[in-house]
Amino acid sequence: MADRKRVGIFGWGVVAPKSPNIEAFERNLERADSWLTPFRGYGQSNFLVGDPEFDFETYHEWFDERFKPAKYAQLADKMGPMVKFAIGAFIQSLSQNPGIETYLQKLGTKCHVYVGTGLGDITVTQQEALRHERALRRWNEFWAAPERCAALRAHLDGDTDPAAPRDPDNFPTGSEEWIEAKYDWEEFWTARSDALQQYLIEAAAIQGEAVPPSSRSAKLTTIRQKLNKIRALNKKPAFRRISCGTLRTSRRRRSR
């Protein structure tokens, strides 16, 4: 014990779901409802996530009081959400302890800032981002096929959707315009795919089955059963993956 250093906590801040600051966080701890919300960032899904409630504009005045006006605009434009979350939490921590900001400034280079992240190396992030991008394109191409999207079939048959993006068939195949239009087109119709909605309903029913709070072996058995049911669901004719070439041929045939 004698060799251990004392650590003092003089302030803290938080950015969390439904909690842009400590006061909101404290109030939410008194409630029993979920802090999770549906995530649609990668298209339609059953995933619930903890989406931080945060507005960097809240700290605009703090920057204007200490820096030149360009500083806030620079950070708002150049920094990503994780950096902004950290800045916001840090500013909150300073407000909890009057005088701590002045003291930290007097410390100069003796005051250190340590930032930890579980995101991994930037090259890993790049590789995973590219992998996700390719998977998402294949996913959208599959669900946006006319045979899996009643809304698209109606659109192609003359009951046009005024919100629909540009049809890639209006551009030379392989051109930059065609590529961008294809991605927008498939993303739009995937969000309206009735087959995808049915798939998500059936998948949610499987994942919603209770896991017994008994022995470890019983829990593992239930998890394996769920995985087997998901595999069986993926093998259903309506949900089975077919080749990209077949998808493109099917769409063009219906669009004529």
How is this structure best described in words?
The chain is an all-alpha fold and 256 residues long. The chain folds into 2 domains: 22-110, no CATH class; 122-255, no CATH class. 53% of the residues lie in helices and 2% in strands. The protein is built from 11 helices and 2 strands. It has helices at 22-29, 60-64, 69-78, 81-95, 100-107, 122-143, 150-156, 176-190, 194-207, 216-234, 244-255, and strands at 37-38, 48-49. It has a two-stranded antiparallel sheet with strand order 1-2. α6 crosses α8 (176-190) and α9 (194-207) runs antiparallel to α10. The radius of gyration is 25 Å and the shape is extended. It starts with 21 loop residues before the first helix and ends with a helix. Mean pLDDT is 86; it is low at 242-256.
Which class do the helix and strand fractions yield? Answer: mainly alpha
What Rg, in angstroms, do the CA atoms define? Answer: 25 Å
Helix content: 40-55%
Let me know the average pLDDT: 86
Quick summary:
The protein is mainly α and 256 residues long.
Question: What is the fold's blueprint, element by element?
Answer:
Layout lengths: L21 H8 L7 E2 L9 E2 L10 H5 L4 H10 L2 H15 L4 H8 L14 H22 L6 H7 L19 H15 L3 H14 L8 H19 L9 H12 L1
Antiparallel strand pairs: 1-2
